[in-house]
Specification:
Number of strands: 13
Structural class: alpha+beta
Radius of gyration: 21 Å
Number of helices: 11
Strand order of the largest sheet: 1-2-3-5-4
CATH superfamily of the largest domain: Transferase(Phosphotransferase) domain 1
CATH topology of the largest domain: Transferase(Phosphotransferase), domain 1
CATH class of the largest domain: Mainly Alpha
Largest sheet: 5 strands, antiparallel
């Protein structure tokens, strides 16, 4: 399915392709640069030209909802700004920040205060996001503030009727669930009361609609995880990791997913070992095991970046795999982290889909 000629003409003149962020049956999302009236800016493009025919009507409906909500939210500074919208593509500004599940703002009370303020601005504009249970739809900006993204399920209201109040309540309750995960000691008595009381609509959804939703998304649409790796990350990656760890030269491994222009979703294995030549051996072993398809990339590193509990920091590795390198620096906590980063970046494998988002990376 091709883009309409007018959409294609605008993108040809104003869009510079960067890195693929996501591709599913509803749209293709990529990061690049857009030539706006004020000059070229970092941007994100959503396009429907690679959507299969059987999901196109729903994809177009979701696209229209996002287009309307972004237009209404313009100037609120709560998320990406709408830069341009055509019939089957739209460009929105890039928010300089990382998703909540990657940033992990433990104890960051200022972040959750700004998140509440963002919801208040959306409410005043009559916008209910409707998808804030997902941590990937909350961003932690480089400025420390909260932003929201992905308005495909947003609902916009001219009047604050009952449905509006229910949906706005659920947006707030989902924010408070994230606050409970990262700053539970900061919850107020009123916020705890809200967390304990789902709306009737939410309770009904959990008992009925969510089961149907999961059946459709996990079965028909193959959505199974928040990182977008689908069944390969959820089902294949653990099997592949176990096979890799069987090699006596391997100390540990971490496998992450990345959007791939050829296959849709790729797997990237970071393997902690000392032998640089181990990559070929591991690939042969995984192929001979006749299990899941081997990862598209296998990179040998002398050490994996780890958190205070010793677990690999997959949030950093995923950004490396996705070539979102400029988003990594704010997540570095010390010079030791930067040393790990430098070593990994020098040998990284996913060089097909990259852009100059790495210009501000530290060199030492």
């Amino acid at each position: 399915m091709n883009l309409p000629k007018d959409d294609a003409a605008v993108l040809s003149a104003r869009w510079t392709e960067g890195v693929l962020l996501k591709r599913d049956v509803f749209s293709t999302v990529e990061r690049g640069r857009f030539r706006a009236d004020s000059g070229e800016v970092d941007a994100v493009l959503r396009r429907l030209d690679e959507v299969p025919w059987w999901s196109f009507l729903l994809a177009r409906h979701l696209f229209a909802r996002e287009k309307h909500a972004l237009a209404l939210a313009k100037g609120l500074n709560v998320g990406p700004e709408l830069l341009w919208a055509g019939r089957r593509a739209l460009a929105r500004g890039f928010v300089d920040g990382v998703a909540l599940h990657l940033a992990k703002p433990h104890g960051d009370l200022a972040y959750f205060r700004s998140a509440k303020a963002a919801l208040r601005r959306l409410r005043r504009a009559g916008i209910c996001h409707n998808d804030l249970a997902k941590e990937q739809n909350w961003l932690v900006g480089r400025d420390g503030r909260a932003y929201v993204t992905d308005f495909q399920l947003a609902a916009c209201f001219n009047r604050r009727g009952r449905l509006y109040r229910v949906l706005a309540y659920e947006d707030l309750r989902h924010l408070l669930k994230h606050k409970r995960s990262y700053a539970p000691e900061a919850l107020t008595p009123r916020e705890r009361k809200i967390l304990a009381k789902k709306s009737f609509a939410a309770s009904l959804w959990l008992a009925t609609g969510k089961k149907v939703y999961r059946t459709i998304t996990r079965g028909l649409f193959n959505f199974t995880d928040r990182e977008g790796g689908g069944r390969r990350l959820v089902n294949d990656a653990p099997v592949l990791a176990a096979l890799i760890r069987k090699n006596p030269a391997v100390r540990d491994t971490a496998i992450v997913a990345f959007a791939d222009r050829r296959s849709g979703v790729g797997l990237y294995a970071f393997v902690e070992a000392d032998q640089a030549a181990l990559e070929g051996q591991l690939r042969n072993e995984l192929t001979a095991a006749k299990g899941p398809k081997p990862p598209e990339h296998i990179q040998i590193v002398h050490a994996l970046p780890r958190d205070s509990s010793g677990k690999p920091r997959t949030e950093i590795l995923q950004l490396v795999a996705m070539n979102q390198l400029d988003l990594i620096e704010p997540m570095m906590k010390n010079d030791q982290d930067r040393a790990f980063l430098k070593d990994i970046l020098e040998q990284r494998k996913n060089l097909r889909d990259r852009f100059n988002f790495e210009a501000d990376l530290p060199t030492s």
